[in-house]
Design brief:
alpha+beta; 3 domains; 4-stranded antiparallel β-sheet; 10 helices; rod-shaped
Length: about 325
């Protein structure tokens, strides 16, 4: 036997078996593809298209695909709106500060008055005390006080009345008076004139007090005259030109005059303590200039501008939201 033919035959058989195995695998794959294809392909017909419902069912069975990227138009509009709102608010604050720098400045001066109420009313009706203090506030801004000041400055009463403000400090008998002016010196001068006029009028004695003061003055003059007479009689008695009886009578008259004088003084003191002699008003704090300007105040102006800016920005946001929700 030829060995080369044996090897050739074995190789051919091996190759045949290998080729057969490969053909069998190809045949099985072909059958699998034919089973997956529609039967209509065997007849040469075109497979029908899927309906919308079938496509939807297929989409449900199939894994979800990645959603398309969202449109960034809304976020861009939101950022633009926020920028516009911020700009409006900043412009409002800037406008307020600019107004505080441009508007005419007003300065102020302040003084305080201690208005003492009678002791019989200290523990009495608090409403009566409030009424008395309220009356003084009205009196401070009355024509009796402000008209002479306005005439002296060549101004109208109503103009001066706008520049004067009065108030009672909480739980006290202190009245605070403030005056405004274009300069600190002008405010000080106006306030000083108002205070002088008020104190001069309020310290005028009443009719009863004026009568007692007159009686006291007469009693003091009578006492001084009797004292002089007693001195003269004392010298005359020593010289033998006057009797002791006349001296004793003069001394009796002097004692009576001193007693009357003391009685009148006591009644005046009672009037003052009871408040019937008029109020005891005194200048507690002399007029002084306020360190900062009264108007315009930068912080208040900036706050006002901020408030206006917020209102306008809110209106803009409301209009924008309404447009975005409109179909």
């Amino acid at each position: 036997m030829n060995i080369s033919r044996v090897f050739q035959y074995g190789a051919s058989e091996s190759n045949g078996r290998s080729l057969g195995r490969e053909e069998q695998l190809d045949h099985e794959e072909q059958l699998g593809h034919e089973e997956q294809l529609p039967l209509s392909l065997g007849t040469g017909e075109v497979p029908p298209q899927r309906s919308a419902g079938q496509r939807s069912a297929g989409q449900l069975d199939s894994p979800p695909e990645d959603s398309p990227p969202e449109d960034h138009g809304d976020s861009w509009l939101t950022a633009r709106l926020m920028l516009l709102v911020s700009t409006i608010i900043l412009l409002g604050v800037a406008a307020g500060l600019l107004g505080a720098l441009v508007l005419p400045k007003t300065y102020g001066a302040r003084a305080e008055i201690l208005y003492t109420i009678g002791q019989d009313q200290q523990g009495g009706d608090p409403l009566r005390q409030d009424r008395q203090l309220s009356n003084q506030l009205v009196f401070l801004k009355s024509r009796n006080v402000l008209e002479p000041v306005a005439q002296k400055q060549g101004r109208q009463f109503k103009d001066l009345d706008k520049e004067i403000s009065v108030s009672v400090l909480d739980n006290s008998e202190v009245i605070q008076v403030e005056a405004d002016g274009p300069t600190k010196l002008a405010a000080m001068q106006t306030l000083q004139a108002v205070m002088d006029g008020y104190l001069a009028l309020i310290r005028q004695p009443s009719g009863a007090t004026l009568n007692l003061d007159t009686q006291l003055a007469d009693a003091r003059a009578n006492t001084a005259q009797i004292q002089k007479q007693v001195q003269q009689l004392t010298t005359a008695v020593s010289a033998g030109t006057a009797t002791q009886t006349s001296l004793n009578d003069a001394r009796t008259q002097l004692t009576a005059s001193l007693a009357r004088e003391k009685a009148i003084q006591t009644k005046i003191d009672e009037f003052k303590l009871s408040g019937q002699a008029g109020p005891d008003a005194q200048l507690l704090t002399p007029p002084y200039s306020l360190p900062d300007q009264v108007f315009p105040q930068p912080l208040i102006a900036a706050g006002t501008g901020l408030l206006v800016g917020v209102i306008v920005a809110g209106a803009v946001m409301a209009v924008s939201a309404r447009r975005s929700t409109r179909p």
